Amino acid sequence: MWLGPIAALAALMVVVLGVRYAGDSRPGMVDARIWAAVDGMGSPWRHVALATDFLGEPVGAATLVVATVTGCLLLRRPRAAVLVVVGAGMTVGTATLLKSLVGRTIHGADNLSYPSGHTAFLTTLALVVALLATGRLGLGRTAGTSLVLAAALVAGAAMGWAQVALGAHYPTDVLGGWCTALAVTPATAWLVDRMADRLVDRMVDAGRRERH
């Protein structure tokens, strides 16, 4: 897959946006225009936004992680199960660290907003599920990359819309969260694979020594 270059570009975007909005407490020009477009959301759509937002809250996120890990184990994909937990933890942890470093706020000095952790989390989960599906379906490089990016786009857009519609984040916070997931998840997947391969090699070597 072409996730390496995509991850690098995403990391660059995270840095650029972080530098641009460091210490800011107001929406930028793009933020203001998008906010104006979603202003006046009706009651039914607000309920949808709240339900989507819940998926990024501790209880909702934990439920999603447990369900996804269970599915991975049932499909006998322990590496994917590990990636779900480690990937989500690394992405959310990175987003939390970036919030402190960037210092952008919304609705008061105590509400750090960049990047959106909710968006980063759901995007990461979608990326892992898409990577699993790509392996199960035996998709090629182009088709697999397209599926992974499509899943990330759908998840990021859904959670991003909810965060903007609820006024919880600036649109650029959402973009930063999406890019954070695109940058961190492929690197985490590579790390999990390398560690798993080493563990398998050690087990094979240990088995050979026992036989001799």
From TrEMBL:
List keywords of the entry alphabetically: Cell membrane, Hydrolase, Membrane, Transmembrane, Transmembrane helix
- The residues covered by the Phosphatidic acid phosphatase type 2/haloperoxidase domain are 81-189
The cross-references to SUPFAM superfamilies, in alphabetical order and at most eight, read: Acid phosphatase/Vanadium-dependent haloperoxidase
**How does it sit in the bilayer?**
Multi-pass membrane protein
Segments crossing the lipid bilayer: 54-75, 80-98, 118-135, 147-168, 174-192
* A molecular-function term among this protein's GO annotations: hydrolase activity
Of the GO CC terms on this record, one is:
plasma membrane
Q: Which domain of life is it from?
A: Bacteria
Annotated localization? Cell membrane
InterPro entries in the record, alphabetically? PAP2/HPO (IPR000326), PAP2/HPO_sf (IPR036938)
Give the Pfam families listed for this entry: PAP2 (PF01569)
| Family matches, as PANTHER family | DECAPRENYLPHOSPHORYL-5-PHOSPHORIBOSE PHOSPHATASE RV3807C-RELATED (PTHR14969:SF62), SPHINGOSINE-1-PHOSPHATE PHOSPHOHYDROLASE (PTHR14969)
What's the protein name? Membrane protein
